[in-house]
Design a protein that fits this description.
Number of domains of chain A: 1
CATH topology of chain A: UDP-N-acetylmuramoyl-L-alanine:D-glutamate ligase
Strand content of chain A: 5-15%
Number of strands of chain A: 10
Helix content of chain A: 40-55%
Oligomer: homotrimer
Largest interface: A-B, 34 and 34 residues
CATH class of chain A: Alpha Beta
Chain lengths: ~280, ~280, ~280
């Protein structure tokens, strides 16, 4: 198993490289939180560019070193934009992050998610309900009743999606991150957990979306597993620090962006996390 | 007439229930202020989900306990999304809030507003010019020259739309709220007025839009009249408190979200308002 | 040559008139920064209204006294909306600001920019790479290799686009503003430079976009050259003041909106700038 200290070292390196190189991670993302996604990407040292049209998605798949697709709001043109962009990313071997927001609303989302199985994301990020829903849609876990997605909220506990996350990571060859009070990140071999953050992160819109965008920024500089973990640690650290300064969700959001910006690579790599083997889960699965 | 103390009690109950139950009020809303709408809905204790596609509007009409439609920015697909969503809400008897922003711009808005007369909103919220324009469009008041909508701004005084608001409420069987220095809320029988707020509310974009979204959150727990009034009181209270802390519109918006979050059900129900009968207006109309 | 003091006087007048008249400058602008554009327009004293549909663009071209078109995010309907809006502005002789964000991404942007040559903007605002790209697209400068646009970022220095800006201004009969550490504004005869601002302006999304929107607000009250310069000075002043109060990009954005709001016409007109003749550049070009 990779030593914890090696993981820390790689996280510190990735966070430092992003600050040094200001890498661009373009997005097709929802209109609700698009501004916060871009500002979070800039705060950690990256650059942002958002597009909607099919040929623009393809072009940006080539121009960026990683990409972010968030399904939170769907426009008609996405029926063409998202598959073409995912295919272009796949062909160019560019890492990309998928945020499968709103599964179960309308017909297009499920249709697109099924197509993504052929061009899978390097990092799948969501709450427990969303991860479970993707695993069911991709037939990676047994169907055991309806999933607990409620609009954009999760009604399932993080732990309940642990096995689903491991299975997805093994299927895609990438990483899966489950957001919750304690976050889990897995590449199918290791499962890392990290607490921190703040209850205020669920009192502002876009904490999850912007985390996905930030993971894409880190994915320009390191492998999917470390990129996802670097994002999680940065968020848990900045969330905790911002909470200490906030009176409510308005001031929390302001402080959160400040703290994302102020966190050094050492701060981020030093935030607590635990590493376990995914093996046991697999045996029991 | 309902005693003022009974209204206060119901407002306190509605505000408390929202904090307890975290109810979802989905929206089809404009792209300019969508982030602020969601953050305001979260700050008062609700949950937000925004969609654009026709079948997604219908699905969310079923998933949420109330809905918010804001016409501020129009996409081509809205020609189908808005009527289908309003119809689904009507059939499922779900309360919904309509914000008729931008009447008079282009052809689609008026066309949609005319269709809404058959599936009327539980709460119509707007500035005086918008309320007057809807009343004229629905032939509820006599046409007396052009209405004073200027883009998204009002050029009419709140009082000038009082009778139009009462007529609309009687026509829809719901409530109408007119925003201005002193807000009016009517269900066609009572007219409640409440002052407070802040001039800064018109120096940030989305104060009205987010109020509409917050009314939809409260409409998941109480009748349209009390839901509209709870929103108005929460905004007048939070606006007043935030102004005392703000240096300009940037800090005002931050403090405003904090104060929305910090206001207790008792605070909200305790904000001053006046109740009158709508009878006199009707006789003189 | 116009005396510097006359320019200052006109800037002071334009800034004061905007505060007095609250003029509306509608926009077709990108979804990433649309909220910040509107809030900045409101902070300086103007009013905002954003639209997407072709007939709404035409209608707003008539209702506003100036207009803002930002190409940052493209929807399919823009293929019709943008040319029809630009044509309507041209026919009504309304001043408008063009922000050519994202040149080189997909096919639509270049197609639209080529069409705009027939209905040219009163003010073209962009970073150095964008100004160079427009000049090349309009065949105003010799093609000397690919331009340095990277998504929405500039890879060229402001000075490198000086001649291109002068040529564009002479071609359009309007003004061109290049944003960077030191901003340049030219009407083809004079070149004004102004420093100030803050490195934080590139750590938040939308500084350039919102500056374009603010220039459109000022263009309702003065000529394109002075409108562009008033915007630049207001931004350089507010950016500098906000930086002194900020801990990071979150607090910077809040303070920046406050400082835009608090800056008096005298403050804005008093911010340092240098005036030169554009003649020399032309001779050497």
């Amino acid at each position: 198993m990779i030593a914890k200290e090696d993981i820390r070292k790689e996280i510190r390196r990735a966070a430092a490289m992003v600050r040094e190189k200001n890498p661009m991670a373009p997005s097709v993302t929802n209109t609700v939180t698009v501004n916060f996604v871009a500002n979070a990407q800039l705060a950690v040292g990256g650059s942002a560019a958002m597009v909607y049209l099919p040929d623009e998605g393809e072009d940006m798949a080539g121009m960026g070193d990683a990409f972010y697709i968030n399904m939170g709001t769907q426009f008609p043109v996405y029926a063409e934009t998202l598959p073409r962009t995912a295919k272009a990313l796949h062909e160019r071997k560019k890492p990309w992050v998928l945020d499968p927001v709103g599964i179960g609303i309308g017909a297009l989302r499920e249709n697109l998610l099924c197509q993504f199985r052929s061009f899978p994301p390097s990092i799948l990020r969501g709450n427990a309900s969303e991860i479970l829903a993707v695993a069911k849609l991709w037939k990676l876990v047994k169907e055991t009743g309806g999933c607990g997605v409620r609009g954009v909220d999760s009604t399932d506990a993080v732990e309940s999606a642990r096995e689903a996350a491991i299975e997805i990571a093994r299927c895609t060859g990438g990483a899966v991150a489950i957001s919750g009070p304690t976050d889990l990140v897995t590449d199918g071999r290791l499962v890392v957990s990290s607490a921190g953050g703040s209850p205020f992160l669920s009192k502002i819109t876009g904490a999850g979306c912007s985390l996905g965008g930030v993971m894409a920024v880190y994915a320009t500089q390191t492998d999917p597993f470390c990129a996802a973990l670097t994002g999680v640690l940065a968020y848990n650290l900045a969330g905790k620090r911002a909470e200490a300064e906030a009176r409510g969700p308005g001031s929390f959001q302001m402080h959160f962006l400040d703290e994302l910006y102020l966190a050094t690579p050492e701060d981020i790599a030093g935030h607590p996390f635990e590493v376990e083997s995914a093996q046991q889960e697999v045996e029991n699965f």
